[in-house]
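Q: How would the structure tokens look for this protein?
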Amino acid sequence: MFSEPQRLLAIGASPRPGGNTDAMLKWIVEGAASVGQAMAVVQLRDVLVLPCIGCERCRRDKRCTGRTDAMQLLYPLIEAAEGLVLASPTHHYNVTAWMKAFIDRLYCYYDFSDHRPRRWSSRLAGRGRRALVCTVAEQPATEDLGFTLEAMARPLTALGYRVIDQLAAQPFFDRGSVRRDPLLAERMRTAGARLARAGAGDAHDA
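A: Here is the predicted structure in token form.
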């Protein structure tokens, strides 16, 4: 379930095995592999990630000590990865509850000052980290994506990632129906290769 730390890490947040989000992630992984980069994949449906309870212990401890779950095994993978992929289907105009829980548990990487309003910084920042986010939705209109892409991209940007791509696939609902779209497959593979090539510290996208 948990591989050795890799330079690239993908987090999937679909509750449906073998569905459209899984297919998209597979193509992204293939794209990274095409330029010689392995990518570890974690499906949140297979592990227990509890929601943040706002205990604020991480401000003092510099790590999450308020919860004991799979995130304790995920944190080393996150810290080792220079490139991160977040993939979630659109559920009610937003990410799935699993993705929301995962993102909230990254709060432990922030440092805060004692001034009010508190200034903050991220311990993940300044290391050339990059990311891409992707979603799939049943409805064809862009507005029906709601906040899904922003809900993933904005927290990553705040944490210090350079979000190099935001990918949306529409309109797909039936399990695996994205596999009938070869142009989408190529788009995802290209994004995976681009993420892999955009090495840490690069000033420009490859």
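Residues 200-206 have pLDDT under 50 and may be disordered.

The chain has one domain: 8-197.

Upvote if useful.
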